[in-house]
Amino acid sequence: MEAYIYDQMLLSHQMQSHPKEFEGKELSAKEEAKTLEDQNENLEHELQALKENLARNKQQEDASRKRLEELKRENNDLAHRVEDPWQRVKDKQRDPCRLINPLRNKTCKPFDKLLLQLIKSTYVNLDSEGYDDMSVIHKVVKPFTVLEMQDMRDRYILDPLYGTILMALDKIDDWDFNVFSVQAALNGDDHASLPFQEKGGALFVTFYALFWKYDLFKKFNIDEQVALNWVSAVEAGYHGNPYHNSMHAADVLHVTHYILSKGGLIERCQLSDKMILSALFSAAIHDFDHPGINNNFHIKTRSHLATLYNDRSVLENLHVSSVFELIKNPAFNILASLSEDQWREVREVVVEMVLATDMGLHGKYVAMMKTRLQERADFLQKDDKILALAMALKMADISNCGRPQEIYLRWSGKISDEFYQQGDRERNLGLACSPFMDRTQPAIAKGQISFMNYIVIPFFEQISELLPNMRVSVDCAEGNKTYWAQNDDS
Ligand code: 8BR
Ligand code: ZN
Fold first, then answer.
1. Which helix (H) or strand (E) holds 480?
2. 321 and 391 belong to one structural domain
3. According to the model, what pLDDT value does residue 350 have?
4. Which residues form the active site (predicted)?
């Protein structure tokens, strides 16, 4: 306190003795105070502006977060929404006449549940072991027990739908399995109406039976509903052509199964389940979206597809690539449960098998096979297995020539009808009709005999070297050739 009083006294004394100096100091102190006050005010404004900015940013951040949530939800909906599966297929073919989604925006054909129950129960034995998770087995189509199935068979065996299909499927392991009787019982076999069939046809049923027969649902954990969606779309993707339609696919699927099983291919090449899956997949899709005119027509007319695939295996590229586009949609992705390695191998085999069905490459494949047979290959190396599978699909593709006569004659009539339709289109465009395609100069017998002599019989004989059980096809083909020699209409 004393010190303070002393300081104040000293200050007052100095102010009295040097008044000017103190006035100056006071002034500059005041100015300094003013500046600081101004600075303070500016800082406060700045702070206010920053606060407002922060609030705005926060609002924006909230809005962005909300939008992000919305986008995520929309994205999720889009992923789950069933896109028009035909868009991708249409984009490929760019054919103005192409059907607009014959599935009518459904993912699955409204199949007959009892029919699928009967088929499934023929191959799934609920009493045997191996089905740990019954909910998977029961998910879409609930099979009957063995006892129930015996009862059902007795009850339905004379039914024109269920009985006919069950009896036809009893022959699925045999060479005389008849795809026409399956199709006739289901939706009728008028080729033009095939794409419009509401319920599943012969391809749908044959595929379903074989997938259960080989137990592929369980072996690859394939979702039954997705498999049914897939086969619905694949079947609907075949046009109403006289020959290259979904019945032909069903027929080729059956014969591929025959070559694998009774023909002995699985045993000869020790094929894995993956290879079997690939083989059945390839057979079912091998002519998907076939427009009923051949590669030559596309190349000659410089069509969109010929340009897209550089004139190389134009249609075969279309078949396989359209189906791989289709299965990008999760609703149709029958291969979704496969591991990355499994998927890659299945794709490799499918691409190889379907591309091999280009008859323009026939000579090349026969030569490759000849070399491997001469070298006495054991056909257990991966490349040889794939070659054998490709040859099997090629054989199934033209197998109608080596089937029982009643079946063969229906197919040869159909291929001629399709040839004539192409001939008509060629004529209308002012182009020369391709050989055997001119309906004004019919030469079916001549065409079929040369096809048998130069292509079919030598090829079936080569396959029989690898698989002696396939000799049945050579015998039938010889018989069918004789038919034409005796019934030449030209
Ligand atoms: P795609 O089914 O892949 O077209 O291959 C078979 C081809 O062989 C037919 O397009 C056709 O050119 C020819 N072919 C002839 Br000729 N007669 C045939 C027949 N009876 N069955 C199948 N193909 C036949
Ligand atoms: Zn074919």
1. helix 471-486
2. yes
3. 99
4. 244 (proton donor)
pLDDT in tens, 305-340: 999 999 999 999 999 999 999 999 999 999 999 999
The Cα–Cα gap between 134 and 353 comes to 35
Please state the atom number of ligand 1 nearest to the C-alpha of residue 244: 2
Rg (CA), the chain: 38
**How far is it, in rounded angstroms, from Cα 259 to Cα 403?**
13
In this structure, the answer to whether residues 232 and 176 fall within a common structural domain is: yes
The pTM of the full predicted model, rounded to 2 decimals, is 0.83
Nearest ligand, CA of residue 401? 1
Overall number of domains in the chain: 2
Residues in the chain: 490
Provide the pLDDT for residue 132: 65
Q: Which atom of ligand 1 is nearest to the CA of 411?
A: 20
Per the CB < 8 A criterion, the answer to whether 320 and 345 are in contact is no
Find out whether 82 and 329 touch, Cβ atoms under 8 Å: yes
Tell me the pLDDT tens digit for each residue of 433-452: 999 999 999 999 999 999 99
Look over the chain and give the mean of its residue pLDDT values, rounded to a whole number.
92
Lining ligand 1 with CB less than 6 A are 294, 357, 359, 397-398, 400-401, 411-412, 415, 447, 451
Identify the active-site residue in 191, 244, 298, 319: 244
Whether 337 and 227 map to the same domain: the answer is: yes
Ligand 1 centroid from CA 126, angstroms: 42
Query: At 432, is the secondary structure helix, strand, or coil?
Result: coil
Q: Is 244 a catalytic residue?
A: yes
Kindly identify the ligand whose nearest atom is closest to the C-alpha of 449: 1
Task: Give the mutation target among 365, 451, 457, 484 for probing the ligand 1 site: most ligand atoms within 8 A of CB.
Answer: 451
Residue 394 located in a structural domain? yes
- 274 C-alpha to center of ligand 2: Å? 22
- What is the Å distance from ligand 1's center to 350 Cα? 20
Same domain membership, residue 339 and residue 254: yes
Q: Which ligand is located closest to the Cα atom of residue 297?
A: 1
Structural domain range at position 457: 399-489
Binding residues for AMP: 244-248, 287, 397, 448
CA distance 238 to 250: 11
The string of DSSP codes covering 313-359 is SHHHHHHHHHHHHHTTSGGG-TTTTS-HHHHHHHHHHHHHHHHTT-G
Is 27 within the bounds of a domain?
no
Is 404 in the same domain as 263?
no
Nearest CA to ligand 1 atom 15: 451
Instruction: Quote the tokens at residue 132.
Output: 């740990």
List residues forming the annotated binding site. Answer: 244-248, 286-287, 397, 448
Residue 120 lies in a domain: yes
Does residue 320 lie in a domain region? yes
